[in-house]
Amino acid sequence: MHSTIRPNAWVALKLPSGITKVIQITPNTTISLGKYGSFPANLIIGRPYHLTFELQDKLPNENFSRLRVVPTSELYAEVFADEASPSCSTPAVGASDSIISIADGEEFSLVDDKGNVVARSNREVIDDSARQTLTQDEIEELKRDGSNAGKDVIAKLLLSHTALDQKTSFSLAKYKLLKTKKYIRRFQVLPIDVASFAQWQLEERDANKILDMRAEMIGLVGCWGNVHFAGEDVLLRDPNAAMDQGEEALLPVPQEPLRGRWLVVDDTCGLLVAAMAERMGVLYPEESEDAASGKTEGQNGESVDQAQQHPHRPKDSGEVANEVSKDNGDTEMVEADAVPSASKTDWKPKQKPRPSDFAIPYSQTNTITVLHGASQANLSLLNYWGFDITSPNHPPHPLLNHLMTLTWLQLLKPELDSSYSTPPPTASAETLASWKPSRRGNFHRKRRRFARIRHIVDTTRAGNFSGLVCASTMDPISILKHTLPLLAGGAPIAIYSPTVEPLAALADCFSVARRTAWLSGDVPEIADLSVEELERWPGNERFPLNPTLVQGTSIQTSRARHWQVLPGRTHPLMTERGGPDGFVFTGWRAKPAEGKVAAKGKFKRRKVGSEGTENSSMRAEVGVE
Amino acid sequence: MAATKDKISPFLDPGPCTKPNSLAILQLSRDNLLPVYLQVPSGEHDGYAEGAVVNTRFGSFPHSTMLGVPWGSQIRASKVDTGSRGRKRKREMTDDPGREGTGASGREPEDLAGAANGDSVVAVKQAVADSSGFIHILPPTPELWTTSLPHRTQVVYTPDYSYILHRIRARPGSVLIEAGAGSGSFTHASVRAVYNGYPTDGQPKGKVFSFEFHEQRYHKMKQEIADHGLEGIVQLTHRDVYNGGFLVDGKSPEADAVFLDLPAPWEALPHLSRRKPQTSRDTSDPTTEAGWVSPLNPQKSVYICTFSPCIEQVTRTVSAMRRLGWVDIDMVEVSNRKLHVSRERIGLNLSSDRGVNNSPRDVEEAIARLAEIESRFREHAGQPRRADDNRDSEEEEDQPAKKDDFGAKRDVNFAEDQSSSSTPPWMEGRLITRGEPEIKSHTSYLVFAVLPREWTEEDEAAAAAMYPCGMEQKVIGTVDKAARKQERREQLQQVQKGNRKARRKERDAKLAEVSG
Ligand SMILES: C[S@@+](CC[C@H](N)C(=O)[O-])C[C@H]1O[C@@H](n2cnc3c(N)ncnc32)[C@H](O)[C@@H]1O
């Protein structure tokens, strides 16, 4: 993935102002960068990410700006100059009535075609010489943003300081003027992956939406949740149920569900799910597609163009995931066909027999199961990776077979959920044949929906999950109350919270004092409970959770501090984003031994207590003995 | 006892239960972890009739009691007979929670093999549960390994590596270059990140190419990779990368991401170029430009992170990166804090348990007590003296101490009254969080950068031919006000025209294009 910018890809455009624009690169459109100008999208499609492009002036015979790739020698020309002369001038601060309005500290430098700086200047110099040598008209021109003329005037000014202009014929073409941020018409294209997207969402879009989850937290939660690729897909056989068969023909739920399944509570609109899917290798379409298209692009356009002449539409596809046949998306597609779009070549139908209604499309491992409180899971941010959870007729996407969602009601009281408890429609083959296609379609859709919900709910309830990862606004204690029984022994738990309080309350449920009391045998309410009953302990006020079910509890926070690294001017940034720092609770699902278990080493505890009377006597440590 | 090739690493799939000859992590207490390779008992081992035994200050744990149990199990200590053993190896018995039985990492491999095969089959004694003591047994993960591994160097811990791997885009299928391997902490975390199956029939898979020039560390790591079933997905090379670069068997790993934890990253950077760098330090190198092979993936942007404790190292690294064409250079420092949660129990009416501060909880409580003391004092001490009006000043000064005595007595009574109340001690007081007594305030500076793929004029010409300009129909991105208004108007019209179904279709078509 992400080898070159593909048609219709979501990308982040990094502008000179430091602002990022996230847009979808539609072929045959003009991309506008506001005051920096605009250019045809086709000039960046098929090009690599991370290059720095510069908008050029329109050629006389063209009505659009072309782009130039800015070499790094030019990007860093000023730094290199600074490195060469360690006693670099401090930029002027606070000079008033500037002729050219530039921010403090900005500098211009003139570079020759080999990247050598021939002249450098700060605002003062420009202002002074401008006043001396320029006409009012020229100054006006100079003030105009982004105009090449303005650039030329500054270059002229700088060159006049070097005496080069007297020797050589005045040829600006040989020199390039480097200006700082505000004026330069440069931009960079970054791929939309979880890291870049999350940063943009956090810093420029709406941090609230992702519960202020910083990169540090995404990394920690993913690692402590041990989220990783869990193995090749395992698909259940198609039960090939007849149309007159109902529930009884469903596949039985596997006795011991496979590992490699993660349970998730996500109130970050899908960012957490995206981060996990990325770690599990199910966020981006198959690598091979990319490689293939990369190859074609590298050679010539022909083979791709050929493929374009036979665009396949989803209606031909027998994919399980495509429920309703698509009859009329044509107008859009036809238009788009004019565009050489590599992405469409992926639409070749696989000539597989259509699976039956009760076939389960989900893999049995390497999956994400999302528990949600609303009737629909809100995973809207997955749209940036081409996945729309609300779409009933989804084109192929790896998440289709690896992401399952269910409500808390379906998990805990499935009988109250009508989509779970309403039996599927049945019909004899003859009746079915007599129906109109639309009614038949409806019939099949209902049956498929039923089989899937049953599968998701029943396998989730069967538990044996490999990990629990949360970023939720709900009380983590209540989440654990209902999910702890579903976790396999040794499964990691990683819970993110923007603030520490909910996590502290959670950790307190597993305090040494609580655990000791629980194990003391003096808790009347658990006296006669079996191991299974203790695992499903419903909680009360004294013991909101069974304190022996989680081991190694810990809370942490991380913060990455950014630095500026420049010759002679290296220091941490002066300001950074504030707001919630973010915290992560971690622990492991334990399988307590049956019966009373006493801790050894009591002597040790007492010793610690007496030693630390002054500073630690006021608190009882929470954690593992 | 190297894991057989067809076995998946316990780090990647530990299975439901503990297995013989596979790594398990014993959690003795919260931060006290012990890696162990569990062995099937096959007769007396090391003087123990139960076979191999792990001794800790939480009790003795024969391997036999820890085999075949579900991960996460709480294991009771056993009564073991240390009779003969105690005599034989007295000098080695220390208070330290036995770095003994640490398995392959602490022993000679032959020793383990012998124990596992056990040609001399002697009856193994059944372990008998002890009355107290327990531990938990956890499946190995990079996080647990990082805190329990045998340290041979400084290592990269979870707060740093979790952030690094996120930022260098190490994902299933990525190829990652790492130098030096050191103690293998980062190696374990990174192989989990890039793992997308073991390579079979030449299919490229995610992989870590690791380099280490210190011979002993190299051999230790090599053994660990085998013991942990990571062969095939971690490839360790014994090399000085400053001079030798990163090719393996003369071929390019085609790396997508690089992590350098070396004293002088700038010495290694020239090798991590797209073309033979002009600034290469060995200008005498006869290799021609044409013969030079880049270790990087030619199709993609490559992400790098270097890890250096000193700012001078950063300056040199960043300078070298700029000259070698790396962009988006960003330096950060990650600081991590663990928080301890506790109950701050302050109050006069709390039990006098350990950990309780029996001083007033608030002003009201203080006043109540003072008033109480005052009245008692009057009651008690006042009466006999009431007639006697000329108390001398000395006595006056003595009074505060005496008063407090009354107070103290009173408090004890008070606390006793309360102990029968409903609040259990673990719910008393205010819930607080505080930092650890000692924090790691600096680990290292992290320098991140990206090297875009090469883009030649031919590449550009091919792309330009494939995506010609001049057919632009509409404007996207930042549009000026007029254009935005116009667009919104058009959108509205569409919404009015089409029904919901049509909109849905449109969206699906869009999605199809994106996901393709
Ligand atoms: C701090 S350690 C790396 C620790 C490792 N990242 C971890 O997490 O365990 C640095 C290692 O780099 C190795 N090293 C130093 N210079 C090297 C070179 N030029 N080539 C290969 N390895 C080198 C050292 O032997 C040492 O083991």
TrEMBL record, chain A:
Q: Name one GO cellular component term.
A: tRNA (m1A) methyltransferase complex
Q: Where is the composition biased (Polar residues)?
A: 296-309
Q: Which domain of life is it from?
A: Eukaryota
Which keywords does this Swiss-Prot/TrEMBL entry list?
Answer: Nucleus, tRNA processing
Outline the segment boundaries, as ranges, of region: Disordered.
287-360, 601-625
Q: Which GO terms describe its biological process?
A: tRNA methylation
Q: Does the keyword Nucleus apply?
A: yes
Q: What is its main location?
A: nucleus
Q: Where is the composition biased (Basic and acidic residues)?
A: 314-329
Matching PANTHER family, A to Z? TRANSLATION INITIATION FACTOR EIF3-RELATED, TRNA (ADENINE(58)-N(1))-METHYLTRANSFERASE NON-CATALYTIC SUBUNIT TRM6
Hey, which family's this protein in? Answer: Belongs to the TRM6/GCD10 family.
Indicate what this protein is called per its UniProt record.
tRNA (adenine(58)-N(1))-methyltransferase non-catalytic subunit TRM6
Q: Which organism is it from?
A: Canariomyces notabilis
Q: What is the lineage of its organism?
A: Eukaryota, Fungi, Dikarya, Ascomycota, Pezizomycotina
TrEMBL record, chain B:
Location, primary (coarse class): nucleus
Query: InterPro entries, alphabetically?
Result: SAM-dependent_MTases_sf, TRM61_C, tRNA_MeTrfase_Gcd14
Q: Would the keyword NAD be found if you checked this record's keyword annotation?
A: no
Where is composition skewed (Basic and acidic residues) in this entry?
374-390, 399-413, 481-491, 505-516
Give the location in the cell. Answer: Nucleus
Query: What Gene Ontology molecular function terms does this protein carry?
Result: tRNA (adenine(58)-N1)-methyltransferase activity
Q: What is this protein called?
A: tRNA (adenine(58)-N(1))-methyltransferase catalytic subunit TRM61
